[in-house]
Amino acid sequence: MTALQERPEQADRHDRGLSETDTERQSYLRAGHSLGSWFFTRDHKRIAILYLFAITAFFMIGGAAAALMRLDLLTSAGDLLTNEGYNRAFTIHGVIMVWFFLIPSIPNTFGNFLVPLMIGARDLAFPRLNLLSWYIFVLAGGFTLFVLIAGGVDTGWTFYTPLSSMFSHGNVVLAAVAVFIAGFSSILTGLNFIVTVHKLRCPGMTWDRLPLFVWAIYATSLILVLATPVLSITLVLIAAERLFGLGIFDPKLGGDPLLYQHLFWFYSHPAVYIMVLPALGVVSELVAAAARKPVFGYKFVAGSSIAIAVIGFFVWGHHMFVAGQSMYASAVFSFLSLAVAVPSGIKVYNWAATLYKGHISLDPPFLYGMTFIGLFVVGGLTGLMLAMLAVDVHVHDTYFVVAHFHYIMVGGTVSAFFGALHYWWPKIVGRTYPLVWGRLAAIFIFLGFNLTFFPQFLLGYLGMPRRYHVYAPEFQMLHVLSSAGASLLGLAYLMPLVYLTWSMRYGAPAGDNPWDATGLEWTTPSPPPKHNFDEIPVVDRPPYDYEIEMEGEDG
Amino acid sequence: MAETRSVAEPYRDARQQRDAAMLGMYVFLGSEIMLFGGLFAVAAVMRLLHPAEVVEASKALHVWIGAVNTAVLLTSSLFVALAVDCAKGGRRRGTGAWLFSAASLGAVFLAIKVYEYSLEHAEGLLPGLGAPLKVSTPVQRAFMDLYLVATGLHALHLLIGILLLLVIAIRAASGRLLLPERAIVPVTAGLYWHLVDVIWVFLYPILYLAR
């Protein structure tokens, strides 16, 4: 794994790679050292790094808000935060984590870095737009933080009317403006990916040779472009109601508060797939690289991404089973929500089939991949329970729902994010990290996560409602367990920060292809040069073209 | 030489770059349709829940002013199409002149719209400005709220379009925009203009002709 020939001083075994290798000197990381060369860059790889910094910061802020909440929930009385303070804490947590970490996490960092490399292009279709999108994102994020911390918003990330439009005391309008601005960043990024995948594939890179990660990013981009504007107009209507009294959602003025929920979830349920589809794409890559086999049913895995994106647009009503919508509408939405599990199931079964009789390596990326699969299955199956009308009426707005979507978003997407980070880190910085620490962090994340969120399934089933910090004393045991798990999880999330940073200087040079994987990104030097490919590659083979080991050959 | 100069970094040739720009604009317009789609959904819900009241509310609007504005906007789209034709033929001054005319018609549309708003304000129909409203039912109030948001958002889009066309008109006429090599710039701007126009073509019957 350590590419000895890459060591700056090949004879010197004590040189841990501190000095620069030749590859590094020509890489995108060294192409310009000034601040301007980073902040005005049009290189998709550098923009990806900019995003990585930004979303790491937001992840920590969102995490800090979660830590406050878990600390407050240790006792059944609300003794750390006031009622208003608790409402604000979960609003910060939700708004920051959803719009400023989960939605941009994998697409804007790894999508930016990898899509051009994977399809054999020199950059995204619109490099300047890409940079603009980062600036919009950072502007919106900074503004959101200011609003959430300075004034505070207590509506939760969903901004439900009439609470948000008529009763809330916080800066709902400013928060809505901030999320509205962030939406532009999403739309521009999605647009950029769609055009790039359509128009910049290298010769021979046909649609049925695209890496599954690119398929997933493409499906995600479709949702970004088509769903985000609906959120924008909804937020405009909220702001119009609060500022000018234009009561589209105010029943007193002839409006309909439920209409808000329809419009909001028309965006926000597909947004769940914005968060999880890229993760599914990452895991497809991790599984193929770990099993060293072609992906089982490639076309079905690729098509299921598109199917999830399409069906995801028609399930929003399952958020409103108890909100008073027509029973017949609920029945249809219930059926459609069950249907979306089919393409998700296809992926899980195909990963299992890919691993079957594979030569599986238990390197950190795959440990994260397995973490994802396990937690995604639990989150998905509980999602099926919630899609059933009768069960949902019982557990609606309880911790059961909270546990369900954290299994998908944190257990799923965040694990996949760390999996991607560990898998492509050698490509991004050109150095390897200590695998032992990678494995330990993956295991701690898995344990910490389950300890945090499994008790919440029980809490919810026993009737603990979400968004309350004063609760019945009999729930305390489970809350303490959950908070203990959260501390472990928080520490585990900080571990990679340490050893990955360490590896940038002290890690051994990685070589072009440390995992011995297929894919055009592994044909470039690590880290890649500014223009990715000296010559645009030509693809003449199917994806995941691993040599299949026959029985007995291995000895 | 001009051909190679107009190809930017990630592209292999001018054709690929042009295709990417077209697709990019189409995707963007798709997102714009979804933006207004939310408002059309609101209008549909309102109409389905309260058909009679919506018809009453719609009758209070100035249908003829809206009709004139529709004609103005459709004519401007014709001018944009002529400008695109000039640009593809490399006729710089024609491109500039037609784009300028289209932008002017856009400004005429906005002027008429402001006049219409002021009439409605005087009649006590326009919410949001603090004046006492003379609406008969809550539904009429909601309808006028929707009317203001929808036409206001459309006017904002038109304003952006006017500025866009003016900038391109000046650049085309002065020769800073290389024509016909960079005809893609007026072509994509024209697509945006046509979409803003088409959105009005839908807004007009939904708001004014629901009678």
Describe the protein's topology:
The complex is a heterodimer of chains A (555) and B (211).
Chain A: H1 22-25, H2 35-39, H3 44-72, H4 83-119, H5 127-151, H6 163-167, H7 172-199, H8 212-244, H9 257-291, H10 298-311, H11 327-339, H12 341-355, H13 364-387, H14 389-395, H15 399-429, H16 435-462, H17 476-506
Helix pairs in contact in A: 3-4, 3-5, 3-17, 4-5, 4-7, 4-8, 4-9, 4-15, 5-7, 7-8, 8-9, 8-10, 9-10, 9-12, 9-13, 9-15, 10-12, 13-15, 13-16, 15-16, 16-17
Chain B: H1 2-5, H2 14-49, H3 51-59, H4 63-88, H5 92-122, H6 138-174, H7 184-208
Helix pairs in contact in B: 2-3, 2-6, 2-7, 3-6, 4-5, 4-7, 5-6, 6-7
Explain this structure.
- The complex is a heterodimer of chains A (555) and B (211).
- Chain A has 17 helices and no strands.
- With 555 residues, chain A is mostly helical.
- Chain A has a single domain (42-523), classed as Cytochrome C Oxidase, Chain A (Up-down Bundle).
- In chain A, helix 4 (83-119) crosses helix 9 and helix 9 (257-291) runs antiparallel to helix 10 (298-311).
- Chain B is 80% helix and 0% strand.
- Chain B has helices at residues 2-5, 14-49, 51-59, 63-88, 92-122, 138-174, 184-208.
- Chain B is elongated, with a radius of gyration of 20 Å.
- The mean pLDDT of chain B is 91.
- Chains A and B meet through helix 7, helix 8 and helix 9 of A and helix 2 and helix 6 of B.
- Chain A: It is found in: Membrane.
- Chain A: The chain crosses the membrane at residues 48-69, 89-110, 131-153, 173-195, 215-244, 264-288, 300-321, 327-346, 366-391, 403-424, 436-458, 478-500.
- Chain A: It comes from Xaviernesmea oryzae.
- Chain A: Keywords: Electron transport, Heme, Iron, Membrane, Metal-binding, Respiratory chain, Transmembrane, Transmembrane helix, Transport.
